[in-house]
User: Fold these one by one.
Assistant:
Number 1:
Amino acid sequence: MAESPTDKNPEVPDPKTPAPARTDNEVALELMRFIATVTGYGRSAQASAGFSGKPQTRSAEEQADALLELFERCRGVVRKD
């Protein structure tokens, strides 16, 4: 009897096995990371084209608070499903 390719390499997942379920917090964290990366949310002043007004400087604590607030908002959106 022929062995399947997954029998020889235990690191290759079986295609019949579903991926482990992700928690609401994991989904919210991925959403937060995406938004923060794309928009630069929570970062201190950054150069941008166009009218940007006064540059804002944020302390590390203010940046962390902004990211935590964004995470809470993402958790609220994910849990509405």
Note: The CA atoms of residues 2 and 32 lie 46 Å apart.
Number 2:
Amino acid sequence: MKMKNRGNVLDDLDWRILQVLQENAKQTYMETGHHLQVAHSTVHDRIKKMEEQGIIKKYTAIVNLERAGAKYITAIMTVFTDPKESGNVAERLSRYEAVLEVFTSLSEELLIIAKVIAEDQEKLHSFIAHSVAPLPGVLRIRTSIVTKKYKDEMFFIKGGHNPDESP
């Protein structure tokens, strides 16, 4: 990994290490090194540097809630806001446990898009009505309940490190 204008520039090996970690972060440095045909000490050093630089934020388990028997619904909530308040609204939404992801988007108007999870429609409605709608700056909310999930990936590093590449 090289530093460029105070930013991190990952080389091909760093990207390949990240790809292996995303596929199975439980692998040892030895296994990862063997897979990539480099010394395990190189893998260890590269991973430690990426952790120190904040490139690798954390290691986690991805739980399939449906298979675990959890009953829940997922909704995509689009929040239309007063542009002066959108940052505050996004920050406040990020603090709720029911909100899994928060994004801002500037199209014709500034939007906040949030992925929300709830036990049922009634709890989703209550959360939106009592926690989201009253936030200062919220103009209107559009909610779409997810009825079927076709893909659920967390990462884009698969065959390379260019997210624009087509499969």
Note: Residues 2-52 form a domain with the Arc Repressor Mutant, subunit A fold (CATH 1.10.10.10).
Number 3:
Amino acid sequence: MSKKYFLAGLTSLFFLSPIAGHANDMLTVKTIGMELARDIANEAVLECRKQGYQVSAVVVDRGGNLIAALRDTLAARFTLQIAEEKANASVFSGINSGEFRDARGDIQQELNHVDGVIIMEGGLIIEAGGSRIGAVGVSGAPGGDKDAACAMKALEAVEERLEFAD
């Protein structure tokens, strides 16, 4: 092997290496879009309304940023805040807020002092195409289990869109 080919090979290895090329400087991530977030919030509110509950539903992206919020006509003002904090608890923990509450009852009170997070049932993770893209939180029904059920029905209503997301 000549010195010329050796240097060419060494040079190409240098330029192809992750250190030299900074291959991990940029990441491509999936996150929820406004239209899907709006539809999930709407479906959750409508599902609870069918059951006689006036609720708010909030959808946040994978970073906990508010994307969509909807309060039914007679839902209490504070249900918006609680719904968002339930969704944030799901983003924070990576699991549904009720599961997180049950798993970490030992530190629930401490976690409830984290700004923007409340450890109550009613927040569900939103996944699409194998990626966590956000979370939905519902508040206002008489019990977190009912909030979670409305959120689950909303996710079921958009299930095809989540399954076939690219």
Note: The longest strand covers residues 131-139.
